[in-house]
Each structure stands twice: as C-alpha cells, then as structure tokens.
C-alpha cells in the first residue's frame, strides 16, 4: 500500500483559533487536490506555539506574559465544545486522515489549565486518538500542564497504523517503546524543534522502530504574526525566521525521502509505502525478536487521570 502524505508547515494565525482553522481548511483542500490522504500539521498549531516563552525572562515582564497567556487560553481548543467540528467534517467529506497539534483547554475540571495535545482525526470524521504531551520542556511548564498515558496509543487508519509523540517526547525511550510495542507503521512528531539534532533523532527513530517518520515545525517569520499580537514589534522583527520549519519524511531505513522543507511556508509531499516498514523489522524488531522481555519489561499506565471523582446520591 502506497499513500501520499502532505506535511503542512504554513504559519497559523497566532492567538486566533477560528482564523487558524480557516487556514487549516484551505490547506486541507489544497493537499486533497494534490492527492494526499494523510495530512500532518505542527505542534500547537491551533492557535500557535507560545514561542515568546523563550524570549521573555521568567519573572520578567509579567504583565505581557499574563496577557499572552490569556489570549492563548481564550483561543485554545475545547474538545467538549466541538471546536474541531469543521476539520472533522472536512476529513469526512474528503476521506482524509488528519494529525494536528493543538493548545487544548481543560474546561471539564479546572477550566483554566492548558495542554499541548495532538489529535488524530479519521476519514469518517471521528477522533481516533487524543494525546497530551507528557512532559513540557523548560519554560513550557509555565504554559502547559502534564498529560497522562491515556493517549499513548497506535491507531488504525487507511494510511496505516499511526502513533505520535510531541516534540521532545521523542527523546523519551520508554514512550517510544510503548508505541513500538503496538505494531506502529508511521510515527508522527509534531514539533517546534527544527534543529539538525532533531533531524538526526527522527532518523534514529525510523531505524530503531522500523517505521516511517514524519516531523514538522511551523515555518513562520515575525511578519506573519497578526497586527494585534501583543508587543509584536518589541519581541520580533518582521524578516526574522522565528522557526524555519524543516518538514521531513524519513523511511524505515533511516534515509530522508522528502525534505527538509526549510524556510518555506508550504506543503511537503511524499509517497509512503507501508510494506517497507514491515520488511524493515525482519532484521531489527525492538518490540519483537530483537527484544528481551525475559530481562526487560515496560508497564504503561493508560488510565485517564482526573483531579477529582464526584459521587452524587
């Protein structure tokens, strides 16, 4: 089975959920017209990765940090409110599988905490998986809460068996092994890290897991931030590349087959043959014949964690 993949790294409309959804819908139509059936979007795409956390010193401009966080919270995705319904409808209409990073808000319990999440939407429009980033990195911990293991799942799609970890979760060996142990064929890494080290890591994962690997950050310049972005001109210059993107597709051999798409606000296309993932594990299968379960074992708690349990009479 050969599928056509579209890796989208166009800029979102930062801090604007509905406008970013409109950007996604346009990208879906463009990619579908090009024959793609699996579409991948970057980390925290709705409504943008909070890149300012790497520029504002902790405890520095608290007023600006508070305003930016408030706008991020107001434009976060509430899955219970069907904010993703337009995208689910588009996936069903066109028969596509979408993998999308979001800023998610927990309105069911705290009403305030944000999570860095990735969702998989199937070609019938259903939500196949929802994973919250297990461990935000450095200043990200001032923005997002920690997720649980309930989303550490590999799901069946017409494009193959898909698993996903977000950004530096790909450096967590046990999280990777949890996915390898579910017959994963395509590993997707929505990320903000567009470094050469990240590319090397993704190539390692492809070889280690015997799977296809797809990664992308957001290609975005200062001038792509909307006019109402708080203190935009103080934080960024118009022509600077806040992130260069580097969308990439890597074969199970570890060889790059498409990309990296660098400093280009566009879509990277690639052909992915699922059978090659199965063949790659003939000689190296870390969750099968190359493992030693008599020596090593991994227990994964996928029970959803809740802050309170209510019992009403």
Structure description:
The structure is a single chain. The chain is an alpha/beta fold. It has one domain (2-280): 4-Layer Sandwich (Nitrilase/N-carbamoyl-D-aminoacid amidohydrolase), CATH 3.60.110.10. 23% of the residues lie in helices and 25% in strands. It has 7 helices and 13 strands. Strands 6, 7, 8, 9, 10, 11 and 12 form a 7-stranded mixed β-sheet that branches. A 6-stranded mixed β-sheet has the order 5-4-3-2-1-13. A hairpin with an 8-residue loop joins strand 3 and strand 4 (114-121). The longest helix is centred in the N-terminal third of the chain and has 17 residues, at 17-33. The chain is globular.
Topology:
Elements: E1 2-8, H1 17-33, E2 38-40, H2 62-74, H3 85-94, E3 97-105, E4 114-121, E5 127-132, E6 155-157, E7 160-164, H4 173-180, E8 186-190, H5 196-209, E9 212-216, E10 219-221, H6 232-235, E11 241-250, E12 256-262, E13 267-273, H7 275-280
Parallel strand pairs: 1-2, 2-3, 7-8, 8-9
Antiparallel strand pairs: 1-13, 3-4, 4-5, 6-7, 9-11, 10-11, 11-12
Short description:
By secondary structure, this protein is of the alpha/beta class. It has helices at residues 17-33, 62-74, 85-94, 173-180, 196-209, 232-235, 275-280, and strands at residues 2-8, 38-40, 97-105, 114-121, 127-132, 155-157, 160-164, 186-190, 212-216, 219-221, 241-250, 256-262, 267-273. It is built from seven helices and 13 strands.
């Amino acid at each position: 089975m050969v599928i056509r993949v579209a890796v989208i790294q166009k800029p979102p409309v930062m801090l604007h959920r509905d406008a970013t959804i409109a950007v996604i819908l346009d990208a879906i139509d463009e990619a579908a017209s090009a024959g793609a059936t699996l579409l991948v979007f970057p980390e925290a795409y709705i409504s943008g990765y909070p890149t300012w956390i790497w520029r504002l010193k902790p405890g520095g401009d608290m007023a600006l940090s508070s305003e930016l966080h408030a706008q991020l919270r107001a434009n976060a995705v509430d899955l219970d409110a069907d904010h993703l319904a337009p995208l689910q409808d588009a996936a069903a209409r066109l028969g596509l599988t979408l993998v999308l990073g979001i800023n998610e808000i927990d309105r069911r319990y705290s009403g305030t905490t944000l999570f860095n999440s990735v969702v998989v939407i199937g070609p019938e429009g259903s939500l196949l998986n929802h994973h919250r980033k297990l461990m935000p990195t450095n200043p990200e911990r001032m923005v997002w809460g920690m997720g649980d293991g309930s989303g550490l799942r590999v799901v069946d799609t017409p494009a193959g068996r898909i698993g996903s970890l977000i950004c530096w979760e790909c450096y967590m060996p046990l999280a990777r092994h949890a996915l390898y142990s579910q017959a994963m064929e395509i590993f997707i890494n929505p990320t903000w890290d567009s470094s050469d080290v990240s590319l090397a890591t993704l190539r390692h994962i492809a070889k280690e897991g015997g799977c296809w690997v797809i990664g992308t950050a957001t290609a975005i310049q200062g001038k792509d931030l909307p006019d109402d972005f708080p203190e935009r001109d103080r934080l960024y210059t118009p022509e600077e590349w806040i992130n260069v993107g580097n969308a990439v597709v890597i074969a199970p051999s570890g060889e790059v087959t498409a990309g990296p798409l660098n400093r280009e606000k566009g879509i990277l296309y690639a052909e992915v043959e699922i059978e090659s993932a199965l063949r790659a594990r003939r000689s190296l299968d870390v969750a099968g014949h190359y493992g030693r379960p008599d020596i090593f074992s991994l227990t994964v708690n996928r029970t959803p964690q809740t802050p309170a349990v209510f019992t009403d009479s």
